[in-house]
Amino acid sequence: MVARCQKCHRQEFADWQSGAHAATYSRIFLDRKKNAEQKLQDDCLRCHGMHFEGGIRDLVTPLDTTGPWRLVKPELANLPAIPCLACHEMHTHGAPLARPDVPAATPGPKQELYRPSLGLFDRREQLHFAVRALPLPEMRDGDRAVKISPDPRQALCYQCHAPRSGNQVSSGDDRTPMGVHEGLSCLACHLKHGQQTRASCATCHPRLSNCGRDVETMDTTFKDTHSAHNVHFVKCADCHPRGVPAKRLARR
Predict the structure, then answer these.
(1) Which of 86, 102, 134 is the last residue of a domain?
(2) Residue 119 near residue 94 (C-beta atoms within 8 A)
(3) 170-181, pLDDT tens digit by residue?
(4) What is the span of the domain harbouring residue 208?
(5) Which of 64, 124, 186, 230 is most buried, judging by how many CB atoms fall within 10 Å of its CB?
(6) Of the residues 67, 86, 105, which one is the last residue of a structural domain?
(7) Cβ atoms of residues 89 and 121 within 8 Å
C-alpha cells in the first residue's frame, strides 16, 4: 500500500522516507548490536512489523543472541517495517469530511488538530484504534507526577515509545520531556512524518537561553548524538553542577 499512498501524498511520503520510521525489515531485525543485547521476540512485531503475517520465528532465524541472523523471507529485506498504515487508517467511521462552505481563514481554536485517519494499527486485534481512543499515560519521576502535554496526538507516540510498567520517565523506550522541556509535546520538536528536529529550538524560543548561551551550541544530543545530556531529559543543573545562574532580564 505504501506505493499507492505515495501517488497522492508525495510530500508526506518524502518526509517519511527520509526519517527513522521508514526503517526496513533488514535494518530493524538484522541489527547485530541490538540482537546481541536482547533476544528477538514476538512483541518486537507490535511496533516493528505490525503488518507482518506471522510470528517472529517466521521472520528471523536463529532466535538467539549469537547469530548470524537472516530473514526467513529475504524478499522482505527492503520493505518498510513501519509503513503508512501503521499510523493511518484508510477508511474511518462516520460521515465523510465536507468541503468548507467559505474558503476563508479559520480561527485557530476551530482548526483541525489531527486527521481523522490518525490511529494505531494493533496487530493482535487487526484493527486501527483512533487517537481519540488512546490514553495518555501518567508519567512519574520517582514519586513525583510529571507534567505532560495534553496534545492527544502524542498518545500515538506512546504506543511504541513506551515506558516500563512503573511508568518512570526514560525507562524502556520512553522519551517524555523532562527538565527544561517538561510539558512539551513530542510534536513540538519532531516533524510529523520525517521526525526531523532541525527547527525544534527555533520553533519555541530565540537562539539564546536564560543564561545567555546559544541553545543550539549547548552540550546536548541536539548538537551531538553522543552527548551525555539527552535533550529529552536535560536539566539546567546537568551543566551547572555548582548552581544554576539567575535568569537574565530581557533588555527593552
Answers:
(1) 86
(2) no
(3) 999 999 999 999
(4) 198-252
(5) 186
(6) 86
(7) yes
